[in-house]
Amino acid sequence: MTRPADRSPVPLPVHLAVLVWLAAVGAGVGEAMVRTALPDPPTPGELATRFAIYAAVVALVLALFTGRNAIRWALAVLLGGVGTLSLVAEPVSWLASGGSPADFLATADGSALLVTGLRVAHMTAVVAALVLMFRPAANAYFRRYASSAA
Q1: Do 72 and 83 meet the contact criterion of CB atoms below 8 Å apart?
Q2: Which of 46, 27, 4 lies closest to 115, judged by CA?
Q3: Is the dihedral of CA 37, 43, 48, 54 positive or negative?
Q4: pTM attached to this predicted model
């Protein structure tokens, strides 16, 4: 993988961000797989689309090692923004339509609780990865690439 011209090592926050992004993808894959066992499973087309997106996301996440700031911002906007909205849309609409968390917890089976836990893990990982990508050491790394590319 190409890194900034000064060949400086990839800082720890960038390494951690990559790992946490991959954990977020793993939680998403896990959620999709569990949903296949629920009464209203995703269609094969929905699963294919979801897994194509996951593959593209993994490629984008691994490209963080290149030091290109555009990759970092693409992840921030696409996954941190659009992706987060897609993760919270379902629970927010459920709450807005009168869903009760207490009733859900009282009646949910293991699969529903697992899906919920994976969704929470996914969202938590997204927030953590976003924070890591913009830590001072990460900022300096991406600035070095930008200055060496100019």
Answers
A1: no
A2: 27
A3: negative
A4: 0.86
